[in-house]
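Hi everyone, sorry if this is the wrong subforum. Our group has a chain we'd like a structural model of before ordering constructs, and none of us has done structure prediction before. Sequence below.
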Amino acid sequence: IYIENSLRYNDDDNPMLSRSMGSGNQQIFTLAAWVKRGGLTGNNQRIFSSDDEASADWRVRFQGSTDKLEFVDSYNTPSESYTQVYTTRLFRDTSAWYHIVVAVDTTQGTASNRVKMYVNGVQATDLDDGTGSSTKYPAEDDNLGFGRSGTTLEVGASFYSSSPRQSFDGYIAEVYVVDGTQYAASDFGEFDEDSGIWKPKDAKDDLTFGDEGFYLEFKQTG
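Answer:
Right subforum, don't worry. Here is the predicted structure as tokens:
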């Protein structure tokens, strides 16, 4: 009811938006979008991602086998230094809109402040590494895959993945990619005074997007 424009993704068509990235901030960034799942396909469904020939992959996605929301960054190797942050909450309501915010700042001294995940205005604090073990936050001052010059940032799929391409299935709206600032969910939305429902607000003129940031309103018709 609060979202006027969105982009519809049919995963059978392998949909994707992509953009070549210049040199951005690999330590501080924020990703935000409203999403409504069209189905539980059993496949991984990416909301944001970037692959550098599958060697420096990061992604925000619904994991196909569990329907958890995850942020994983494998820019740093070996695997012990991977960033792996998963919600223990499952996202299986195909009638609901979810506002997803992943806010990263690896310069923070407290590990849990380096990756913050918000859903519908509330920070997710019940997290693990996807296997039930402790969350693997990035090391302090780590450079991550976001903002790496020459990579491709994708919205709604993975450019290099194939069979399947981990395409999103459903609706995506109000996409924000912010380079250089760790924002909170309250910078993108607010609770309605009457209903208490989390809703988007016009934030595009109040944010600092940085060199590689952008906003997708999907206002075009036709």
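For your construct planning: The longest strand covers residues 28-37. The mean pLDDT is 89.
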